[in-house]
Amino acid sequence: MTFEPETRPEISNLVLLYALVNDLEIQVVVQDLAGINYGKFKQKMALDMNNYFREFRQRRLELANKPEFVREVLEIGRLRVLKEAEKTMQMVRSAMGIEY
Question: Can you give the residue range of the structural domain that contains 33?
């Protein structure tokens, strides 16, 4: 495997993703994967990506079973954002001279 974004963007993208999900530097990944064929790399990549997202999938399943909790969190966020949006719109109206 190589990391050559200019000449091999399709492979370099996968190497970068592999580095990110394994919390490794790109140069370390290139050294670790030296000599590995593309098919084996794809298999390894699929396993590592699956492992990386395992906790996210589990959390999503937990939240899917708690729709009321999700609604409450969303409503709290909506109210918080609404306060900020009102402040911003007041500044915009003031700057444009259309205060009402």
Answer: 1-65
Q: Is the dihedral of CA 39, 41, 45, 47 positive or negative?
A: positive
> Of 57, 4, 45, which Cα lies nearest the Cα of 26?
4
How does residue 1 score in pLDDT terms, banded at 50, 70 and 90? Answer: confident
- In this structure, the number of other CB atoms found within 10 A of the CB of residue 42 comes to 11
Separation of alpha carbons 13 and 21, rounded Å: 12
| 3-class SS of residue 34 | coil
Q: What is the CATH number of the domain that holds 25?
A: 1.10.240.10
Shared domain for 41 and 90, answered yes or no, is no
Q: How many domains does the chain have?
A: 2
Section 17-26 average pLDDT: 96
